[in-house]
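Quick entry between incubations.
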Amino acid sequence: MRPEGSRASDSGWLTLLLVALSALSARFAISEPETPWYVPVFLIGSYTGGASFLGAIDARTGWLRRSGPGGTVPAWPGILLGMLLIVAPYAANGARILADTYCRPLEQVSIVALTNFAFFAAALSRIRGSLLAAGAVSFVLVVAALMLGEHPAIVPLTAAYGGLGVAWLATRYWRDATAATQPGRTVRFPRVPVLGLGLLLAGVTAASTQMAQGVPDIWGEWVPASGGSRWANPAALLGVGDGDWVVSGPRAKSTGATDSDHFLESDLPTLYDVLTETYGEPRSPQELQRAIFVDSEQMLSPQGHKAPDSGAAGRRFSIYRKDRSRRPPAAREAADALLYVEGRVPLHLALRVYEHFDGVQWHERAARQAPCSLKVRGPDNSWLWLPERSPGGIFAGTRPHQLRFGRFSSDRLPLPNHSQRFRLGRQVGDHVLRWAVDVLSWASDGILQARQVLPPGTCLDVISFGVDRAALGRSDELRPCPPHGADPCLDVPDALRGSAAALAEAFAHLPRGLPQIEALLDHLRTHCAHDRDATVPPACADPIHHFLHQSRRGPAYQFATAAALALRSLGYPTRVVAGFYADPAGYDARMGNTPIQADDAHFWIEVRTARGDWLAFDPTPGYRTEWYERTWRERIAAALASLGRTLTANPIAAVLGATLSGLIWWRRLWLRERLFTLWCLWWPFQGPEQRICNTLRLLDLRSRVCGRPRPAGRTPLAWYGRVDDPACRVFLGLLYAALYNRGGVVPPCPADRLVPACRGAVRATAPGRLRAALGGA
Amino acid sequence: MHSKPPAATDPVGNLAADAAVAPPGERVAALRARLNGVLQGKQAVVEHVLTGLLARGHILLEDLPGLGKTTLARALATAIGGRFARLQCTPDLLPSDITGFNLFNQKRREFEFVPGPVFSDVLLADEINRATPRAQSALLEAMAERQVTVDNQRYALSPAFFVIATQNPIEHHGTYPLPEAQLDRFAMKLSIGYPAPEDEVRMLAADLTGDDSSDAAPPVLMPGELLRLQAAVRRLTVAPALQRYMVDLGAVTRAQPEFECGLSPRALLLWQRLAQARAFLEGRSFVIPDDIQAVAAPLLGVHLAALPAAADAVAQQVLDQVPVPTAPPRHAARDAPERGP
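Done. Structure below.
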């Protein structure tokens, strides 16, 4: 029945070619940009040659596989070699970490391990399972290459992979179809594969509906982002990530902060420059005065709205902006990034905090002017601990990040929210520590400011707390405050009070706290569109109303302003924050970090809790609020700790559980036999062939229970024919007919005889009788 | 002729008989009874001889003198109703004494072919190891291809051509051990062994009262019936998993260092045919692994050049190393090995 020209026996070579294409694309994806094209080609070529050699050796000697009862399976040498090839990249990377030398990000190591396994599986493609595994892993490699890489060769390689993959699938199809359509074979509905596929689709659908991003991003989430290698070259001299030898060694070329006015002498952009570039320049007050027709009492005073100069730039932010000059979008060159973030993203990095809003401009709150009380701690006295941070409550575990200054000029530390401690540089000595303590002060609540501009290459290690969303939902930390005239975070301009109240009123009936806030923010995200180029017309007196009901689109500060004013109307102390948003989409797999460009300048809001902590919320569509997500290690540790607590609290139950576990382990074979007996006797959904083979498996299991397992070279008739029982002999006849006859057992044996025959054999070969027949112990 | 199957000796036979394939019938039962009557107490040997006959595989009987090797061969030839020829192998035997030769007829002024003993249905090559290798080689073509070539002229032998050769394992003077090429032509090597005391008493009693007319007994099979039986054997089902099982067993023999040479592909073909013949004799329409294992010892004994006493141990050693396939056919076909890189 095999069609002409189809050669299923060539699947091995086809699989190897498929794996080679996918591995080549993956290698291009993780190679350094300056790597010549022939290096990955030669590397994958050598992989292919090695796999061919291994396959030839295996074909000649067969030492990597053996014949099992269910077909050809890998032998122990093959299993060990495969495990070694998978583990070796991780072990080498671990050794590098221990040696404190260069190590690769986890996803790159995983790709290398997958490549090793794919070629090994292709070499063992005489085994059906190995061949299928090679095909599946090659698909994973291609997906990873598409997600991680930008090399121009990846797309054509993927296209070639697609064409070859179709041929591969067709070959598999013909082979399986030929096997399934042999004369007399009954083709059954593939329940298990369909069930697995259904579960997979349901899982992806559920994940895509529960998460903000779509299915393609979920595919990307499957490719792990480790947060980088946390490696630093001490001799790096590129401005970005300058090594410690350069910035703090005896011949340091970069000495950190300088006394000159960096804003004037440097061409590096400041946050003000970035915001202006991103959102356009603010309109002048005179222009607004001419355009806005409002009551004279509400007329804005020209004194407070002079054009921002370099000294006060950034302390105010006007939501009235000029149209941004049209220019081609800047290429996201990693080398020209403002900041580099290593660690889990998304991440909001706050630089400016605006609390007072006068209807036109947001004003930054005056600095405390108090010296910050940082405590020096840590094993090498390198960590600076922020005050008033303690775990517990709504805070979950900590999360590490490392930030490097690129082409960005700032005197403020872009710390994540709820930072616990930080340090400047990697090998910080006393000199640098004193400098850090002396020059730092609070710019506003939660924002640290240095006296001098932080130079490019400054490295900032930060440990911050994550907020447990579930714990926050359970707590009453977010609760409205009564109107308080002195609190600027509850102040709403009179001209906008109506619009803000109208927006807030729709959510006034909801439960107070997190549900109410999130409902309001979700409404904003779904009701309005994010548009950086949208501006408020100069003649508009109510920018909130215009944003919510007329344009229904706007940049991030419009969302933040509307959300902040509405939340203030509901009684939540809210402020607007400007800074950067580390987008997971910008993750650079080759460098292991997330570069932050000018486009990542962003506005969001923070809501004050009852304990005085400010919690970040992002109302802009497409931007995620970072909640703390426990790692698997933390989840396992928490589960183990919970188990330990439970056992400690219930010692009797622990002893009983341990005893029961020991009994189960001791009698595991007997227990398995009992359960499988019940399955064979009473599980109704067994086909004729499956029922017979399950009965044979039960007999084999019982022979093991009796201490006389059937040797692999003995036939069932030679072994179980010793049982002097007609039912057993009838079953053996059915078994042989099912296994070795052309038509199978169904034509000569109807179902009404089959089930009683199998049950009779199960009862006739009870362990006691079987032990007596086999003469075992 | 295929009226009803004989009594099955295993539990599979009654359930799995396929009406589409002819059962052995009464003729085979009568043939079995005839041979058992001649060689009393040696049912296993008789079953193997019948298996080899139906599988068209030649048999080498290796045993001591006087144990009934020749008697068995003559009884078989008589029973199947074919032409019987006996070749007493001696060191001065020539190939032309086996195959035949061209003789010049002076009257007709031309050469005439005088056929040798291979032009028979059953050839008894007695004491075959006493023939020189040159004479032994004359049997190679006849046994493998059922034809001989004399003076560039091919002569086809009987389609039912069947060789029973005997050799004495204890005498070495003036003997020439069979080369591997010759051994590879045989399907089985059997050893009859001494009869049991009761059988010997019965034999002695029969000798006093019997008429010694076994050669004059009528044949059991009708002309052409043996060929039909052999064709029916060939049609029995052999599951792909069992074919793979035999190939794995052959691979084991090739990988074992104690065997000088493993099973040849011809030996595997013979093994499959022998298993089919045994299934046929059991009244089954398909082969089971027990058939393969049942004929393993005589087959491996001749193809691995094992001594008769060690044949069972050698076969068990080989069989123990390969698991019996018990996976469902659907999985077995799907899990068939691929051709790898």
